[in-house]
Specification:
The complex is a heterodimer of chains A (198) and B (429). Chain A is an alpha/beta fold. Chain A has four helices and ten strands. Helix content of chain A is 21%, strand content 22%. In chain A, strands 1-3-2-4-10-8-6 form a seven-stranded mixed β-sheet. Chain B is of the alpha+beta class. Chain B has a single domain, classed as Cytochrome-c3 Hydrogenase, chain B (Orthogonal Bundle), CATH 1.10.645.10. Chains A and B meet through α2, β4, β5, β9 and α3 of A and α1, α4, α5, α6 and β15 of B.
Chain lengths: 198, 429
Amino acid sequence: MEPTTRTAGEHGAGTLVLGVGNPLRRDDGAGVRAVARLLKLPLPEGVTVLDGGTGGVDLLDRMRPYARVILLDALRAERVPADEATGRIGDRGSEKNGERSRRGRPRRRPRPGEVVVFRLSHVDLLNPDPRFSLHDASLGAVLRLARTLEIPLPEITVVGVVPAAVGWGTELSPQVREGLARMVGEVHRLLAPARCSA
Amino acid sequence: MKGYEINVHHITRIEGHGNLVVNVKDGHIEELRLEIVESPRFFEAMLEGRRYDEAPWITARICGICALGHTTASILAAEDALGIEPDEETVLLRKLLVDGETLQSHILHLYFLVAPDFFNAGSVIPLAETHPEVVKRALRLKKMANASVETLVGRKVHPIGMMPGGFRRWPLPEEIGEVKRLLLEAREDLTATVELFRRLDMPPLRRDETEYLALREDGEYALYTGQIASSLGTISPPRTYRDRIHETVAPHSSAKHVSAERDSFAVGALARYNLNHDRLRPWAKAVAAELGLEPPVTNPFHNNTAQLVEILHCYEDALELCDQLLERPNGDHRIQEPTRHGRGVGASEVPRGTLYHDYRIDESGRITEANCIIPTGQNLANIEADMRQVVSDMAGGEPNDIQQRLEMLVRAYDPCISCSCHFLDVEFV
């Protein structure tokens, strides 16, 4: 059996690479699959890689001990920013005819398999409330709970992949299978020494 | 009675989402159904062709909350099929883990999904605004229960230490001691939990027809495994589950309904309490008596109260199991090997009721047939019968009040739709 976690520097600072999702729902499990790949690769000192399963409120305690979290997940968004102002788009090139976000930034519709990287503080997570349940405690709900209870959390960067299929099954769609390599690449880029000052 | 329609898509605060449809015309229920269960058939197909020792970690992914419960039922099915006899200490350690999972699941259900109803909060987030100390206590208790399990077998999402025949790694005495320390530290929070929930009045509802099914075991409150017992008196081994539980297609619903000796039955904390209350640990028994929980309890809202009682039971049981394990020599615990092949059934009490895994395994150790019956599917027909009673009891009431009561009823059963998707929903601003 493959290990589901590798730990380095559990105390205090350091970076947590946390994959979440359900590998029995095809592309929904992309984050967990990316973690499985990362566990086989060399990574810098002070980096902990963890399979977070389907998450929920437990994510609070998972993330708290670290200075920085890189969260790997499937990501559903109607539109993503077409510039780098709110984060980095992993795969640019299909900017949509001048459409803009509420803050006036250009936006476009993401493609399945596309990898999107952004700081969590730069987005609104949809439906953080009231659909709070044990299974579905969305990250938005968890973060809002942390904010309400004044629980400090580390800086969170999301590396998300846009799913093509989330029905029953363990096979990734061809688009997300290709996207997985880009997710792993983005994690390495984020962990590069110059950015790993945490 | 006037007519009204209730259509709730995605009942909040149940495990996953459910649809609730009620249509009353001239005082007559024309339509009433609850759609909450997705078929586990997919898992059965997925297990076929896999090795028996892969099944526990595949099925652990079925449910983020009951990962350890599925692992346990899967291990029990494989051991039954293959003639594997785990040693006594292995059984003790598994029971300790089952206590830990029951604790964390019940704590989250009561604090995060049930409590908001009684504080007039839409969810736990407004509850955290008005009663932060309550939610912080829930998080502390949840962390304690998770840490206990993880100290013993690794990540809850994948209890990798557990397998048919034994444990991949036996915990060190100091790790068991650490679990005991975590438990002892939680006593004050558990006392406060009892004080909080004893003040909450459950809505009235009485349906004496309900049959209750739970496992029963000699000399203990059955959670890890046992015989299938009914409140109507029948008791038989797990292998007889196909004769005891009958699947039927309900004409009004796309979901399958199940029945035993009556039209429907209930599993879960209240069923266990009704059948096994005489075997609770002392603190749990005393609090049940103080709360006036006189068995048989036929109000399904008291599934919440029964969960509170079980929290105390599991706490006391876990402490006792820690002591028993610490008293024994921490010696050689070899993983026991198969002695035959064939069919085996594993039945275990998970937080929401009895879970069955049924495998046929060939001589190469591969699963050729699998069947899995989850608790929420077993409860569905009974929830609908209770809903009819609520609608009838509240005839003439405001539809909004009836809807709220129905939603509370569904939540009291702590239903679960496993395997919902968990992607991030994002809007870039």
